[in-house]
Amino acid sequence: MWVFKVCLVGAFAVGKSSLARRFVSDVFSDRYLTTIGVRIEKRALEVDGASVRLAVWDIHGEDRFQSVDSLYLRGAAGIALVVDPTRPDTVQVATELSERARRAAPEAVQIVLLNKLDLRDDWRPEVETVVDTIGAEAVHRVSAKTGEGVEGSFDELTRSMLKRGR
Ligand code: GDP
Ligand code: MG
User: What pTM was computed for the model?
Assistant: First the structure.
């Protein structure tokens, strides 16, 4: 049995809590409840015949009032940098968090989740190219609302963490 800590980080309201809820409980709600501190949810899954338990750390948003403490990131095997492509400034936040995570959890696999795929018509085109400069292992297009891409991106992240862990 493998146990991995995965942190969801990003700017406020990019959809970190919605992605955690979609992945763990397969539900979505339109209500916006600010995350205070951190919420940890667990889910077991099978990937390539391996039994894995993920502890998903849904961490409060990074903004000018509060920053994500490196203590939350320590020990993570996976870091999901969540971006809302309708708001290009969320890429800059993800870039900063990527650097912080690299210091706090140097071994962690980093991926980018471009969330709100259901709003693709409102995505700003520059985001999809800028995001490559973060240097994450993968970039996934997902929607917490419809669920599209969510399961697949966590599967692939888990596969990468297994590869690194073995
Ligand atoms: P967090 O601050 O990053 O945890 O963001 P939340 O998960 O609380 O979501 C912020 C807002 O965006 C809420 O109103 C959500 O309903 C909405 N939201 C989150 N994910 C999606 C998505 O995939 N599509 C759409 N259309 N809205 C979303
Ligand atoms: Mg939240």
Answer: 0.96
